[in-house]
Amino acid sequence: MFQIDRFGRVPIYEQIIEQTQRLIASGALKEGDQLPSVRVLSQELTVNPNTLQKAYSELERRGICISAPGNGRFVTGDAARIVGEGLKEKLGEVRRISEELCAAGVHVEQVLNAVSAAYGKETKD
Amino acid sequence: MFQIDRFGRVPIYEQIIEQTQRLIASGALKEGDQLPSVRVLSQELTVNPNTLQKAYSELERRGICISAPGNGRFVTGDAARIVGEGLKEKLGEVRRISEELCAAGVHVEQVLNAVSAAYGKETKD
Amino acid sequence: MFQIDRFGRVPIYEQIIEQTQRLIASGALKEGDQLPSVRVLSQELTVNPNTLQKAYSELERRGICISAPGNGRFVTGDAARIVGEGLKEKLGEVRRISEELCAAGVHVEQVLNAVSAAYGKETKD
Amino acid sequence: MFQIDRFGRVPIYEQIIEQTQRLIASGALKEGDQLPSVRVLSQELTVNPNTLQKAYSELERRGICISAPGNGRFVTGDAARIVGEGLKEKLGEVRRISEELCAAGVHVEQVLNAVSAAYGKETKD
DNA sequence: GTGGTCTAGACCACT
DNA sequence: GTGGTCTAGACCACG
Question: Are chains C and A touching, using the cut-off of 8 Å on CB pairs and a minimum of 3 such pairs?
Answer without folding.
Answer: yes
